[in-house]
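User: quick one, fold this
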Amino acid sequence: MKFHYTLPAAIIGVSIAFVQSQVATAVCSNKQVDEIAEKITVLIDSQKPGSGVIINRNGSTYTVLTAYHVVNKPNLKYEVVTFNNQRYQLNYQTVKRLDNNVDLAIVRFTSNKKYQIFLI
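Assistant:
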């Protein structure tokens, strides 16, 4: 007798999961995500390289979010390398740790080229 209640619930649950996955696929494919990620991700090149994401542009100044441990040595030379292999000197005066309890920092570089930024 419990089977009569379980079967409709299972069918509805599977249907919702199936429809939601189709909607998610329609919004953005893996290829589209890869293409966007490639354009907004940068290499922060130094003795111990790391990565970051371009999060803002103000004129020709770009802001990158990265892990603080990637840029925590002020005496090192850092370069931001974009997806098209362009290198930009990082001005260490622009490095700002977001919070002492979080391993995040923002850094800035300047370029006259147009780069895509991360949009939420």
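User: anything notable?
Assistant: Residues 33-110 form a domain with the Thrombin, subunit H fold (CATH 2.40.10.10).
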